[in-house]
Design goal:
alpha+beta; nine-stranded antiparallel β-sheet; 9 helices
Amino acid sequence: MKAFGLCGCSTTRDSAAVRRAGVLPSLLVALVVCLASALPAGSEVSSAERPGYRTLLEWESGSGSAAGVVFFRASEDQLTRRLLVETPEGRRLVLTKRLLVQEGQDRYELVDDETGWWVRLVKDYDFEVETLDEFFSRWEELLKPGEGREVEMELLTSQGLHFIATVPVAQQGETETATFAQRLLESDVGSELRDEMPEEVERGIAFLEVAFEPSASSLRALPQVLAEVVDPEVRKAASHATWKKTAEKLRYRLAPESQEEARFVAQFLSVDPTEPLK
């Protein structure tokens, strides 16, 4: 699935830039906010033209291929990252992560573009600040050793399922997510979620779990939780497919720059192609 006509490899520069963007969020935020402040006062600029970036992705294995695009934007009080992915089975999924500092929350959402089914995960840090800099300072304080440090996590679906648990704060967010996933799996909601989830979405989640390395993407938290309730055989098949990322291209604007990109984004009915992060 050469959705974007990319060459069959990642450039070192592009891959390194993506890693830096994930490892140094405060520097990235400063850059994006600086770019935003440089816009002429009163100028009318569409969402897709405002400062931000997108990353074009392609994967291949012996059993098929997949493609996606990740959009990212930062402001003084919010970080938004959204993946539009077409899975190996051709299912279109929309995975979003928003850090809302004034509410002290990380919000993850997965939407099945075909049926409209969605599942949401909210991580509540129990503090509210005004800016990203303040948030990261408080977050670092939260990670310091201390008794009773916890974060509340809540899962909801479009069909009314609801599960909430408080888990210990961990240096690695994946540890918090794994703890929450285990508690979900042990509850009645875990089996109800498996029954409610569309079959092709289940396969898509299994793919997303292996497509993103734990250290490489902040988008992985929700697929990590959902993978625990996926049919073990489906999960096993995805892990054995040996998916390889064959292209990863960073672009320093949100708007598509080719007809291939524009057509790819336009396929997603739950996303406004002119406002991909709305």
